[in-house]
Specification:
Length: about 375
């Protein structure tokens, strides 16, 4: 009989999925409209304010008062959806597309327990997660543990997606940083609302993949201990976009053309002229690596209670290598890494119980 290495199968499946999704020319690639011009300049300056060397980390955040409507209600639980104006800096609101100016959340709560005796975890979106449904399915069974679930819809996703954007493929590099900065600001405001308005006793933040990176940043910056749960998350966006499978879905020629245009200060430049300008694809890759290094979570402060930080990685992840997750754990001594068997894509579907167990355990450590 022929033995099958299941780990290799999962790893290969990630690459097959990535090939079909990212290497084919069926869809628009990431950053097809270039770097983002002055928006990127603004973001580079503002994102640096989050790092530990910055004197002010903007706390308390802008207060929110979501406008709620009940979606459904049973004897034991209730699902509401809320809308509020994004809590970004006004300069960032101007940079965001109009569709992203209003944030949306879904809020799933048990009805028999008062908030001060409960916990609530905010779930952030991974790449391609445009709806509330998958994260509500992850959080729903936690109601029996008196853990409420709040799901935030990211800018550029779902009903907040710009009309000219196709699927999840952001049009400019600046869009990726805008998405991240707005998500972080909104999540911090929601945590403040949960604590000071809703009165929850314990709180947490989690996310898968891209959402895990944002969750790590939010947990790092929160001034009091919260459970922080990055699932299948790299230590930086450099990993998937410059070294991983997303590099096959990136419009490198468009980025090179845009860089050449900026360098020569002309209004239009053909592909041939871009090639003749002396800017190479390798230089463009290094520029993108430099920009995305702003998302390196290892540069962020250690959370107030690192024992309440649990990273979950996949043993055979074709998108996120093990060493990237271990860099996060090394940067935050006292945190824990758990491993699930499988790849990046398969773990989204096969290991919800492991993710839920991590959420319960991290909250118990507060």
């Amino acid at each position: 009989m022929v033995s099958v290495n299941l780990g290799l199968v999962h790893y290969v499946l990630d690459h097959i999925y990535g090939t079909v999704l990212h290497r084919t020319k069926l869809g628009t690639p990431f950053f097809s409209k270039g770097w983002g011009g002055t928006k990127l300049d603004l973001l580079e300056k503002m994102v640096k304010q989050l790092f530990p060397e910055a004197r002010c980390q903007n706390w308390p955040p802008t207060a929110v008062q979501p406008m709620w409507k009940t979606v459904w209600e049973t004897k034991s639980s209730c699902l509401r959806e809320g809308v509020f104006r994004t809590t970004c800096d006004p300069r960032l609101i101007e940079a965001l597309p109009p569709e992203s100016h209003n944030a949306r959340v879904a809020f799933l709560t048990p009805k028999s327990v008062s908030p001060e005796k409960m916990a609530c975890v905010i779930h952030l979106a991974g790449t391609g997660d445009h709806s509330f449904e998958r994260r509500l399915r992850l959080g729903g069974p936690l109601l029996k543990d008196n853990i409420a679930t709040m799901v935030l819809e990211s800018p550029y996703y779902g009903q907040r997606r710009p009309s000219m954007q196709h699927g999840s493929k952001l049009q400019c590099v600046s869009d990726l940083l805008l998405l991240g900065k707005a998500t972080i600001d909104e999540a911090r405001s929601l945590l403040y609302w949960l604590q000071n308005e809703a009165g929850y006793g314990k709180m947490g933040i989690c996310g898968l993949s891209m959402g895990g990176v944002h969750a790590a940043m939010v947990g790092s910056l929160h001034p009091t201990p919260i459970a922080t749960l990055p699932f299948l998350a790299p230590h930086s966006a450099v990993v998937p976009f410059c070294d991983g499978l997303y590099r096959h879905a990136t419009a490198w020629d468009a980025l090179r053309k845009d860089a050449a245009t900026l360098a020569q200060d002309v209004t239009s430049l053909t592909e041939d002229m871009a090639q003749k300008s002396g800017i190479t694809i390798e230089q463009v890759r290094e520029r993108l690596r430099s920009v995305l290094s702003l998302t390196d979570v290892t540069r962020f402060p250690v959370p107030k209670n690192p024992q309440a930080v649990i990273f979950v990685g996949a043993t055979d992840d074709g998108y996120i290598p093990k060493h990237s997750i271990m860099e996060l754990q090394k940067a935050w001594p006292g945190s824990e890494v758990r491993w699930v068997t499988g790849g990046h894509v398969s773990s989204f579907f096969l290991h919800n119980d492991a993710f839920r167990k991590a959420i319960v355990d991290a909250l118990d450590r507060l």
